[in-house]
Design goal:
The chain has 220 residues and is mostly helical. Helices cover 64% and strands 2% of the residues. The chain contains nine helices and two strands. It starts with 11 loop residues before the first helix and ends in a 7-residue tail after the last strand.
Length: 220
Amino acid sequence: MAKREKRGDKGRISRDNIMKAARRLFSEHPYNAASLRMIGKEGGFEHPLIHYYFPTKAALFEAVLADIGMEIYKANLSWFEGLVGLPPLEALEIHIDRILKFNRKSPEPFRILFLNMAEIQQAEEMPGFALIPGIIAGVKANLEERFTLSATDEEVGMLTYGFSVALITYLGASYCHGMVLGMDPESEEYWKWVKKNLIFLFGPVLEKMNLGPAATSPPK
């Protein structure tokens, strides 16, 4: 638990501490099950302090979702670096290795997405829901900026959506999948299984689409 915040400190650090505590809590409890009191307890500060920066829990959750969306978008740019010109399976393997490394360092984004996407039945139930299609659209845009694919726009959309959902599921619900598979979800065995499974599912699709460098793809 973080050190208790000084009551008079309402500067940048206070907002950062609230965001960090909210990220941790929202990665363990879906939006509807979490409370501002729980977030305050997680961060070691009085929960009314949250209202100084965020008028409602919904506003705080939307800020967290925007934060992890930008984190994934920036990371996604680096996941594609240097892959142009490589054989599809080799590029996919490197791409997956980078994603798994990111997740082990920062597991909260995929957990938050999984927990809340699994809970909602209507978009209005999840503040900031509109940000999720944008996160997945960013994956598709980054792919198309770097590569040509012998596929329709619909097929590329299905590829990127399916890959994104598989990541959110395998990484966001790793403890469940680990137990189902009889593996320690934090073990090297589980991460090797995830990588092998993703290559099995999506490798043949990329090969069929004749993945190649785009005419004006970003530099390697």
